[in-house]
Predict the structure.
Amino acid sequence: MPTVQDILSHKGNKVATVQRERSVIDAAREMNKLRIGSLVVVDGSKVVGIFTERDILVRVVAEARDPNRVTVGQVMTAPVVCCDRETDLHECKSIVTNRRIRHIPVVADGELIGIVTSGDIMARESMEREVTIESLTEYIGGPAPL
């Protein structure tokens, strides 16, 4: 069974983070600069929440709050669902589907070590399907000509 570590081994451990004291406007600019949809909110290296585009829309824009004055900590989603390196990808897919989230921070010994997204899970499944199709094609039709 593939695990979170399989994804981290491929994509790396880099995670975009933000401190809860930062303003929403600063965090939004950082997300735009990096072309990403979320930032993991940390206190040191401990995960305390997640800040997403949806948080901006629902808790700032829709409530007509000033993004220059509102802090990430005031509008972040918390607590956040996390996993570890050994978490089965099928379990991650179930979490993403059932909780309707797109990002799962990866934690080891209380420290943030990576992130798995719904896109990572789908890409891994797609790769596994391609390998299966190639194997079945070779089995049925013989090896591909050189």
